[in-house]
Batch of 2 targets.
Target 1
Amino acid sequence: MSTGIGARVRRKEDRRFITGKGRYTDDIRNDNQAYAAFVRSPHAHAAVKGIDKAAAEAMEGVIAVLDGHQLTGDGIGNIITGWAITSRDGSPMNIGAWSALATDRVRYVGDAVAVVIAESPALARTAAEAVAVDYEPLAAVAQPVAALASGAPQVHDNVPGNLVFDWEIGDEARADAGLAAAAHVTEVEISNNRLAPNAIEPRSAIAIHDEAEDHYTLYTTSQNPHVARLVLSAFYNVAPEHKLRVIAPDVGGGFGSKIYIYPEEITCLWAAMKTGRSVKWTAERSEAFMTDAHGRDHVTRARMGFDKNGRITAFKVDTIANLGAYVSLFATATPTYLYGTLLSGQYDIPAIYGTVKAVNTNTVPVDAYRGAGRPEATYLIERTMDIAAREMGMDPAELRRINFIKAFPYQTQVLLNYDSGDFPALLDMAQKAADTAGFAQRKAEAAARGKLRGIGYSTFIEACGLAPSAAAGSLGAGVGLWESAEVRVNPVGTVEVLTGCHSHGQSHETTFAQLVSDRFGIPIENISIVHGDTDKVQFGMGTYGSRSGPVGMSAVMRALDKVEAKVRKIVAHQLEASEDDIEIVAGEARVAGTDRKMAWHEIGLAAYTAHNLPADMEPGLKEGAFFDPVNFSFPSGCFICEVEVDPETGVTEIVRFVSADDFGTIINPMVVEGQVHGGVTQGIGQALLEQVVYDESGQLLTGSYMDYCMPRADDVPSYAIAHGCTPSPNNPLGIKGCGEAGAIGAPPAVINAIADAIGTDDISMPATPQKVWEALHRARPAVAAE
Amino acid sequence: MGQLKLSVNGRAVSRDVPGETLLVDLLREHLRLTGTHVGCDTGQCGACVVHVDGRAVKACNVLAHAVAGSQVTTIEGLADGGGLHPMQQAFNENHGLQCGFCTPGMIMSGVDMVQRYKAAGRDLDEPAIRHELEGNICRCTGYENIVKSIQSAAARM
């Protein structure tokens, strides 16, 4: 059975997970282990008048109680944001200071003011409750629109009006002209509900300080350990990079929430130095709801103009994005360059203009969550298309079809240059798989059972493969977004691939190995993938933004090119043949058309014994590469969702869900389909179930799985998946990335289907039974009364 | 509370642990069986499911002393010898896991539901599996391949 590119190879990493031998951060325990518990604000906004630590310090088993004044006094730097955004008036963004432990003011429920280090987790928690903090509550604001109102409570003194930036993209005059000339203008007001990412493994950190070497080690639940080390060194002054090792072992899901370097990791490292103990912290789920970066939380007004034939003339968008109390690492990029640049969707739109006002509120920071900006753009565009179709009396699929971009490359009006795609083909594929021709009959059959059946489309595009470094830099990014790889062929011919990407569910140990198996024909068992440790892998940018395939694997391909070139030279020299005549097949290198050959292990051995190498060749067989993409990749897709709504209860059942995706080249279809299943389920969660709720005073009302409704197995259907393929021209594999598509494309497909079923667009996410029932009654009192 | 005696994965265990110790802490912290995971603090996620006397139990919701004298099986003790239990095998064959964190709980719940349905002579079809998985949350897989894994294992158990 093939283990190369395109094969459904079973995962190499599974064995340790299915036997309970995975090694997650919380599974690790050191000899001198101490445990941290944080003292967190119960107020959304308050002045800190004093902290009385005496009672906690006096408790047996308490090692230290440390506060923010001590932390800043030791020179630990404030938490940074990694992407500078310029407002449309040319002014820089306004950023309020964020200390890992708050000193004089707390700004959200859960903001930490102190940490207790104790001999057990239970002792640490008990002692944390004994720390008496004198808070003077201040007026708070939790909703983004309210935060912009005049007289709203100020989250930071140096962020006037709570406005972090007021950004624009596109050409306003052109968009206005397009709207003025339109035969029909559709106006929408749309909220994108706030979500908690909810990786099932809670965040965790273990810090170790080796006093003799003045060296630190951090085990952490990170998607990007090298970025963590860079930021901890360069900005937080914990230790210089060569004195800090960051290890992200097995990590139980991330979805964006484990990109950021949080206050807890910084505090644990600092506390390890202060106490001389290894310091461990693991979040409880309720702590995760309070402190993990949330996602989405946009409020948008938009207008889309159409000519008399249904062609889009212009799109104008005004969005307010909630950034929470502090500006997190990628929080500024998410509602701008990952949102505004996607406002063209799959459509040829001649004029686009968008503004984004990013605001502080007294809520936990909001940052990138699976899809990051692209789900918000997609939901806006795809809801607008459906609403417009209903208003104009057109078929939603046909309205999409006549507006599709059909020739590539395509320069949008919002910076991006789409490299490839075939949107009509995806629509056709999805319609066939969804049997849309039979929908009317199914709707009638459902009606006979008293159910309202509806169908919804979402035709979407993403910008993935983050990101071309120069382009990102020119737009304000503080880092380059290339990726690195090193391929080491050992003397016995086994291969290790070191990558700067990080797998926390993405199956890299299998799919990256497939690249090597494909190239040299060697057994996949003889290939290991090494990642997640800054002492092993020199540098890398980690895994997010569907980048491991298009960027990380591309780096591996480049390193494999170099290894292959050296192998050819070695074999040609040893077999006295021309390099051009060497064929590498099935773990052997042969001189074409002869029986002269070297087995793979003989080649490795030859490279390392170095007894007979070409005159100018260095011994060894190890090559590295950095790959910096020239453009984003542009996965696209068409989702079709069919629902049945019970008018008696408002309960929505998803009865059919079809995904037709174009991810370019697929390395392992089994893994890619798994990514789609998971992404779509998160999208269905957003559409039907999930919402983080803060009340007016900034209290978090959804702080556990009792209050925050996660999708469960019986909330979602079985999925039908089809793949189209237009390879990306911008990387050696033609790969586009698949991690985020489901979460990006699914929410509008679901809501469009519900709107179709109940005959009104007066419905928002999450479309709970109560909301659906109420919408139905508002729109169709007669039907509802039947 | 005195000495707690029970059997874990077929081995007699005797430990002096405080009365408030949760079963999951006994397993993870005292016995260092870290395959049983903690994903929430309200008994919702099911990452901590183990078997107590052959029945699925959320180990975060049970005091260790409450299972004194019981036979506890964790993910580490599910398979006989060095092989894999059919449920473990099925999760690998059907790509029933991604990050692996919820997986031990899913596998232990899967084994439990198959055994219960077989004992009752009931058909464990897809809707039944989805209903039975109510107490296990996965954020990675969308459940599709977990359902397939359990269906596939049920045919072999």
Note: Chain B has two domains: 3-76, 86-156.
Target 2
Amino acid sequence: MTQTTHDKPPRTTPAAGTDTTTTTGAGFAQLPGLMSLMTGDEKHGPAATSTLDALWVLYDRVLRVSPERAADPERDRFLLSKGHGPMAYYAVLAAKGFFPVDWLPGFGSYDSPLGHHPDRLLVPGAEIGSGSLGHGLPLAVGTALGLRAQGRTDPAVWVLIGDAELDEGSNHEALAYAGAAGLDRLHTLVIDNSSATHGWRGGIAARFETAGWSVATVDGRDHRALYEAFTAPHPGRPHAVVARVEPKGA
Amino acid sequence: MDTMRERFASVTSHLLDDDPRLAVVLADIGVDGFTGAARRHPDRVVNVGIREQLLIGVGSGLALTGLRPIMHTFASFLVERPFEQVKLDFGHQGVGGVLVSAGGSYDWPSGGYTHMSPGDIALLDTLDGWTVHVPGHPDEAETLLRQAAAAGDDKVYVRLSVQVNQAPRAVDGVRFQRLREGRRGVVVAVGPMLDNVLAATEGLDVGVLYATTVRPFDGAALRAATGAADAADVVIVEPCLAGTSTRFANDALADRPHRVLGLGVGRRELRRYGQLDEHLAAHGLDPHGLRERIVGFLPSGS
């Protein structure tokens, strides 16, 4: 598998209809610096950087969320299910102004709201608490159903899971149901760093396709490809984006 | 008389008509009772199939968007199988919802141990903030279900059963009721155990409290009842695992010498089928078995 790594975000203008969020002015290039402020969870370093590009593209150009809209029922929802290694997530939230950058150095300490797994009651902008794998996709299904039941057909619901997290059976309950129910406001981003112990014979995308999802598999470091996959139309079906990055430990 | 489950379906179906915040989540169990409601409210009656982790996860997701989910299946598949979802998707996420179980400890004895959940309340007791209702009659179930549906963002468990008392009592969703006064001690009957407790204590000089809302535990009522007796000797008779509520009674009486006997379903798997009455007798929860143990525990009358 060939991977390309972009040092800078692509110079494309946001598509019409995407919100420009209130930010600290920090761009993608500043994220590694923000992440370096957080120490103590080096064990999950690979897990953190695997999500960095996809998270940035989502928050910078796709999700209609901002600190001002944090309580807006019409906002898009992003659920970080793979709560391990949340440094990239915290860096992106800080860069987008959800909380001050000076929270980052406290990462994991007793008085810090920023734990090694995020807690939605402590972290502004975090839609769910996570850490135990396999909870986010079922929660996202319920969120999509709840929005639909209230006539809120506009907000998109996104959930980020890992390829190893996909081992958890709860995901398969959720992805089978979501496909059958045609939850077209539901989106799953699978960060695939080949960390599932037994792999996924036949591919991750096939699991979603068979269940009735629209699926795109892209280079998880290619911002343009990510953006296109994130914004691809998928009428009547939920949408999965499998973002492949360097294998864990490679 | 309809069953508690039938009452649950009819009452909840009406509540769905009146309260746009309510939603019902099912996992193929109990679907028939909601056919009409599902037709009227297709987006608020969700059947996820035989997927109990998803049952709870979806309920929490609905709650995250502001709805009040009511999740229903057998107790073993509602509380035990997806227990971590109950713990995290409600407790840790900080949202509320209503779990309504059927089946109890042995409502379907011929179904065997896979469909028995005597430990459901004990499990929930490891978590913070769950209100637990154990109605003893379909009318009580209706009152408590209506309260649960209207209880804001509270986390509420309602344990429905086919074991029922002959007559309903006027339950308020909070307090224990003092049904009998007595000097030798106090017997707390939980939900469907009341009729057997009343039969077992007939003619004995013991106080009887009736408890349908067991969490929070009405310690004040227990203190008042034991204060009226000669000694703080308490027997709790529960339709679930023996001893489930014992520590709550101990906490309520911490400032005075007291003794507590917890009667309920034993831990040992009987590996028996048969009928409800046979299981009640096997666990010593029939009137005869109860009377023997209550008399043996309480000081003899003067």
Note: The beta strands of chain A are 77-80, 157-162, 186-192, 214-219, 239-244.
